Amino acid sequence: MxxxxxxxxxxxxxxxxxxxxxxxxxxxxxxxESQKYYEKLSNYYSSSAYMDDLEESNQTEISPNISQGIxxxxxxxxxxxxxxxxxxxxxxxxLDIIKKH
Length: 101
Description:
This protein has 101 residues and is an all-alpha fold. Helices cover 80% and strands 0% of the residues. It is elongated, with a radius of gyration of 22 Å. The relative contact order is 0.06.
């Protein structure tokens, strides 16, 4: 007699994981494309131009309607760390998957 519960369980895993892979691949494509903009920000953040702009922003009245998160320093620093940790996490997950196959 066929184990219907097992068939349903395995079918659910198949469908669910297929969707997760498709969504993840879409997210990876966006992440990869975004890296060129991230690099631009990272390069700016570590440049003397950033320090000059930061100093100027501290001496200039800027409308509160203009977001200045770039000059909080912590937001950019945290983003750099998060980008790095995300890359490490992807490598670790990928390596684990490869080792199991």
